[in-house]
Design goal:
single chain, mainly alpha
């Protein structure tokens, strides 16, 4: 039995997925398609992750991001750009740029508005 809706099963394969498949098989291509760094995660970050896992920090947090993270974002923006934001009312953390762009567009676009992007 096919449990996938026909309209989903008939969707064409994503061009970006085909690109990633090609890049994964080649060593002479530098992919700029995903926001991943071209270096391994630094040890000081890995140590903090390990500490967090051992301390039981393995549960979901608020979808806004933890207060500590949002406060750190505000400190960074103030230090780096002189920008002042309220971590309680003006800052949220996303899991990636696609989610951030989606949230930003949904915050300012009304149903029926036209949006152009490249």
């Amino acid at each position: 039995m096919n449990f996938v809706a026909r309209h989903v099963a008939e969707l064409p394969k994503s061009g970006i997925r085909a690109f990633f498949d090609i890049v994964a098989q080649r060593h002479d291509i530098i992919s700029l398609g995903v926001g991943e760094p071209d270096f391994d995660t630094p040890w000081h970050i890995l140590r903090k992750v390990d500490e967090g896992l051992r301390a039981g920090a393995t549960h979901y947090t608020s979808n806004l991001g933890t207060p500590q993270l949002r406060q750190a974002i505000c400190r960074y923006l103030a230090r780096r750009f002189g920008a002042q934001y309220s971590w309680e009312r003006e800052v949220l953390a996303t899991v990636g740029v696609s989610e951030a762009i989606d949230a930003a567009i949904r915050a300012i676009v009304e149903p029926g508005d036209e949006v152009m992007y490249h």
